[in-house]
Amino acid sequence: MKNLIQKILVVAPMLLFLSACDKGFEEMNVDPNKYSEVVPGYLFTRAQLDGVSTNFTGAAYLTIGQSMQQFATYKEVPAAGDKYFNYSYSTGNWNAYAGTGAGQGAIVSIRQVIDAVSTSPLDVNKRSAARIWKAYIFHRLTDMYGDIPYFNAGEALSAKNYSPKYDTQQAIYADLLKELDESIAAFDASKATFGNADLMYGGDITKWKKFAYSLMFRLGMRLTEVDPAMAKTWSEKAIAGGVILDDADRAVIAYVDGSQTASRNFIASGLISTDYVTPGGDNVEGGKFAKTFIDYLKNTKDPRLNVISVVWTTTDNKTFTADTTTALQSGMPNAAYNNLPANFNSFSEPNPNTLLKYNTPLIVFGNAETNLLLAEASVRGWTSGTTAATAYANAVRAGMRQWSLFGTGGTISEARINAYLAANPYKATGTTAQQMEQIQTQKWVSLFLEDEYEIFSNWRRTGYPVLTPTNYPGNLTGGKIPTRFVIPDSEETYNKTNFIEARTRQGGTNTLSSVVWWDK
């Protein structure tokens, strides 16, 4: 894994500019440090890495993590989600995903992969995996920004199209679901795959189908408030096709503690470089876990609290201990301070023995989420094979078992899992609203640091967990939790006509308070 990622960094594949030449001087026009054509395997690996890790600190941690009240800060500048300040953090994903040249983004990379494997019948499995990954990338982008360039995105290099049209999110979703459906059907067990260049599944097409159906399930459920009939159709199709239900089928990318930054887990790298550098004392961006999150885990006696959270204790101010004792854990209130609070050291922060290890894996799509989607589908009457109570219990168990991937410090015993379920049983006799709140709040916990983007999208769709907005003086939203990322101002300069058309179509604003199509 380490060697593979390092190869990507050293020989990042790109198109070579070839010059016509004669009289035997062709070799002089060939750059020996660049490939003369796209190498799909290397570029697919790169697209996978870029597709999950882009702008984690600005977007997932400082904007979403704070606004979803899992993290808090006492400072103003990094308080994109804590105090609803500084929209610029949310623009980073736009530029990073769409970047070109030596720093090209995931969109350009995956488009080049698809173009490179688009003609040969022998490459059908590579093409299908690439199309599925492209759907993954674009569903994240459109969920953050709403209407975006989609059908003509990434054509600056291939077609010299520097002003792509913005497509409606409704049209994008329809095509994403079509792409998943067609890609699944096209897989052929007798043909070649990306093999080890595929960081999630090593080319296992059976698992790729489950990943694609799981993504289809997620996207289908996203439409429950805007198009219930379409949501039902695609959700039922995904369930029938077979989603990720077992631990062995989880989509996971492994990382190593290597010398190359990209080989390290980007979440650990981001948290360490941004805030959690040394035990005790002030942090770079003034971050701690949020009171809302820690209080919920403590009140429900959730054993994950002791896996993810520590308070640094000391008796001599020289030797510090990362203490996971439940009674010590305390979250910092969101938007409560604008200077270092006197009790800053008493607040909880990420456990260095689990969350802050460079060699921890990333769960791209886990069975905790799919089982929670199944529980919701059952509540809606869209599945008869599994009861909501069973699916919910399966989700809780999966969400707790997955922490064992982070080492011995993450292992939660079966006895503690059983005790949690006994103390927090599924509300089978509750109202639909109560059942939905329990399911979606569990998703807020289970997807913590696995997929903050999905937590943000699911909260906007369902309204759960119920979060009390902050109203810090001078905030950018009028005391409303942010509901959309902001498209960079540069779009009004370089793609003005298309940008303004899309902005007008989405209510005429491009702010943290704007909403996307499915957010009703």
Key traits:
Serine Threonine Protein Phosphatase 5, Tetratricopeptide repeat; 9 strands; TPR-like_helical_dom_sf; three-stranded antiparallel β-sheet; mainly alpha; 44% helix; 520 residues; single chain
* Major sheet: 3 strands, antiparallel
Number of strands: 9
Low-pLDDT segments: 1-31
Structural class: mainly alpha
Q: What is the correct CATH architecture of the domain at 39-195 and 467-519?
A: Alpha Horseshoe
CATH class of the domain at 39-195 and 467-519: Mainly Alpha
What oligomeric state best describes the polypeptide chains here? Answer: single chain
CATH topology of the domain at 39-195 and 467-519: Serine Threonine Protein Phosphatase 5, Tetratricopeptide repeat
Q: What is the helix/strand order? A: HHHEHHHEEHHHEHEHHEEEEHHHHHHH
Radius of gyration: 23 Å
- How would the global form be characterised? globular
Mean pLDDT: 91
Strand content: 5-15%
Count of helical stretches: 19
User: What's the N-to-C terminus distance?
Assistant: 43 Å
Going across the biggest sheet, name each strand in turn: 7-6-8
Fraction of residues in helix? 40-55%
InterPro entries: SusD-like_2, TPR-like_helical_dom_sf
Signal peptide: 1-22
Organism: Spirosoma fluviale
Protein name: Starch-binding associating with outer membrane
Describe the structure.
The structure is a single chain. Among the domains are: 39-195 and 467-519, Serine Threonine Protein Phosphatase 5, Tetratricopeptide repeat, CATH 1.25.40; 261-350, no CATH class. The chain is 44% helix and 6% strand. The chain has helices spanning 2-10, 40-53, 56-67, 88-98, 106-116, 124-145, 169-186, 205-222, 228-241, 266-274, 291-299, 305-308, 367-379, 388-401, 414-423, 432-446, 452-462, 490-494, 496-505; strands at 71-73, 148-149, 166-167, 251-253, 287-289, 309-314, 320-323, 349-350, 362-365. The chain is globular, with a radius of gyration of 23 Å. The two termini are 43 Å apart. Residues 1-31 have low confidence and may be disordered. It comes from Spirosoma fluviale. This is Starch-binding associating with outer membrane. Keywords: Signal.
